[in-house]
Amino acid sequence: MSRYTSVTNADLQEMLAEIGLDSVEALFADIPDRLRLNEPLALGGGRAEQEVYEELRGLAGANVSTEDEISFLGAGMYDHYIPALVDSILQRSEFLTPYTPYQPEISQGGLQAMFEYQTAISELTGLAVSNASVYEGPSAVGAAGYVAKLENGRRRFVVSEGVHPHSRQTLATMAHGWDVEVIEAGLADGRTELPALDDDVSAVIVQQPNFFGVVEDLEPIARAAHAAGALLIATCDPLPLALLKTPGECGADIAVGEGQSLGNRLDFGGPSFGFFAATDALLRRVPGRIAGETRDVDGRRGFVLTLQTREQHIRRERATSNICTAQALNALGGVIYLSWLGQAGIVDLVTLMLQRTAYARERLSRVEGVSLLHEQPVVREFAVRLEAPADRVAARCREQGINPGYPLGRDYPELADCLLIAITEQRTRTQIDRLADALGAAVAAERHPAGVSA
Amino acid sequence: MSAEARWFTAAADDELTIYERSKPGRRAFTAPELDVPERPLDELLPAALRRADPPRLPEVSEPEIVRHFNRLSKRNFDLDTGFYPLGSCTMKHNPKLHERVAALPGHAKLHPLQDPSQAQGALELMWRLQEALGEIAGLPHVSLQPSAGSHGELAGVLLTRAFHEDRGETRTKVLTPDTAHGTNPATVTMAGYEVVKVGTDASGNVDLDDLRAKANEDVACLMLTNPSTVGLFETGIEEISKIVHGVGATLYYDGANLNAIMGICRPGDMGFDIVHFNLHKSFTQPHGGGGPGAGPIAVSDRIEPFLPLPQVVRRDGAPGNGAHGPYYDLDYDRPKSIGRLRGFQGNYGVFVRSYAYIRSLGAAGLREVSEVAVLNANYLLARLRREGVAEYLPAAFDRLCMHEFVLSGAPMKRELQIKTLDLAKRLLDHGVHPPTVYFPLIVDEALLIEPTETETKETLDHFAEVVAGILREAQADPEVARGAPYTTPVRRLDEAAAARRPVVRQPL
Known about the structure:
The complex is a heterodimer of chains A (about 450) and B (about 500). By secondary structure, chain A is of the alpha/beta class. Chain A is about 35% helix and about 15% strand. Chain A has a domain at about 85-335: 3-Layer(aba) Sandwich (Aspartate Aminotransferase, domain 2). Chain A contains 13 helices and 17 strands. The longest helix of chain A has about 40 residues, at about 330-365. Chain A is globular and about 80 Å long. The N and C termini of chain A lie far apart (about 65 Å). The mean pLDDT of chain A is about 95. Chain B is globular. With about 500 residues, chain B is of the alpha/beta class. Among the domains of chain B are: about 1-75, no CATH class; about 115-355, 3-Layer(aba) Sandwich (Aspartate Aminotransferase, domain 2), CATH 3.40.640.10. Chain B is built from 16 helices and twelve strands. At the A-B interface, helix 1, helix 2, helix 3, helix 4 and helix 5 of A face helix 2, helix 3, helix 4, helix 5 and helix 6 of B.
């Protein structure tokens, strides 16, 4: 008997007798002999719980986590502090182990939490409608593109180069199936510069703040998009939205984004959640689950999954998305985290990051061989140019226990000497000062030979 | 009223929302000290870029947050508390060890852009999981990237498209059985193909004549679940494979029902080209009330060049250090790849749990999982028959089932005047989660029942007795079931009103 089953030999005999068979083998009579495996899978034997724990601990130990170094890595996921109450609540079996709430009478906890989450996302984005979550950030951009395609049937997306490379790549993968072309709009001094838009453009897609940390001015972009009859899709970092003019206020039709920074672990990239918000006009095209308020037969308030005729299990090939299982538990972590921050706290937190980021920018720009890539306003992330290859500088810093940020060369070959640096509330002034020293020393050691340009 | 449903202890009244608990001035968060010189806000972020008012988030203290969400939790039914025979969802026990190992800082606090040289443990774990899943599927190449089953399906159909395009072929149609999960046809549309439905024969198998009639050079792929969504093994799978491959199409395996066949037979050996796994079903990732999951895919040699970017690979020796042991890396140099399907490397936290599960059970344990899953399903079907349930709830197909089975509530509706929905709602009063209802679509008043391997015989006996009891109750008075549930925090909810005038956020 394996650890998680409970059929005794006596049970087995009784159960087979009830079925009217004499062996377990006979249960599989429908499987043609030629297809039956005659030997065990090459997976080895089972192991005791403590043996598995030790193996997984060993693998964990072979990673350098944000507890093991001072990390300035961001570029889409951020080392924010997660309050203990998030872990504590998410480990409750009533949240951890239920299925999707298709039976609302016994799922009010999860459904109400979704409704509270949707309300918080609407507040952050300034848009009337939020769904209950999508997978994560970049695929949320793809999902938003699909809504635009359904809405206006046009055949081109204009995507800013300031949109996260993973989002652009994901959108391109998905759009290939719809025969929609993806055109990139360049940046001027770190901000999106739109080309002329014609009536083939389905949607304009920008990121706020953009991949380089720069705050975009969304309003003129929205006006240009709408003038061409296109939708504006803004993919947003949710925490800076505590200070920034909301995408809704700026005229965005859809705001999506990566929710990890709202109380979710880094987890080497997932699971986290994607958020998806839209104007009221797009309500019936929104993908995935949406919780809605209603009443029961006794007049009590309750919540259900609503507008299900958008979804795959009802609408099948005419659904607004194929999404089914999404990220309910991660989104719950998000709304718990936002409740913990609260209305005043979220402003305090983001203001602290803004101030420390300003300090870091100023401090690093005074380091020999380091300069700012852009001068535009930023919130908690910015790019610097080094007088040396960024990947080699980063490797040198890591040897001293400081991960100085993300080398941009992989995604932008022309920026092979640039580094993207994130300053969360976990990075103190002392740590920023250490970064400045480490970066200065590493750039000096790796500096381009005189006369050779980057 | 049943005396058994006592899960809901704090449930009687309307529960305030977190916003309704809010009071100006309350807070839980204290910001770390401002340790840098403060600069004027206008200097850092011009007013034209700023919002006028902060987002209206709740103003609550820590004790209130904890109490609020704990109270909400008590209004949820969950797998750790009771039986959850939800067909096609594989609601089996989620081992507690997995939560412990996933929370280790080396896993949970690892940044996704960490240099591969400093993420060797994570990449090795992913590589080993790829190898294990490939072995279970009988297909050699695996990508862990997709985020859930439907995302794996999208990956699979886009891989199919890339495969045909690479051969210079344009195909426009994808076949799905009329029993398919809704995600299959929805995925087909989202990948830019037209859906063509294939019928089911009287014994519950794919109708081979219909398949032959519809399989032609326009067809890119057949998406199939095996065991099928009616819980039966496709006995004609080899012939299906021959027909599909005969017209140059690919054969796609929806892994929702993999729990029936692990270590017993393999999709790759049946002729499937592409398989997706639901790690939140057969591989014990807790379902979380609607995710997270993960939907890795395994593919054959001819599909491999098109797998998503990046691929986790094992190389001989780290860059620059010669051939000292294996080095795990992310491979971006794949010119025929369909590209990315999401950010970073996938739902790694899910991979940790599923890897721990596979290591805990090993080959023999996984095979036993499937044996007991099928044993439990057939036992429950037989046990329900012994209770006399078959008169009102006959099995849709009179065969041995695999890990789940379908009953039809049509006679019950006709003879007892209660619908499948009523039976489902009445089960709630008995502390049992209802089966999947009204799916698959080809069975009238369907109930799809999947007990899973982690339930005891006693639990199955109890379920059979409860169903029989509800039918007896309905013989005496159908109104009882029609009005159910009675013991839940709320009773039947007006879903039509919710859809007619949607209220999807709290007015603030």
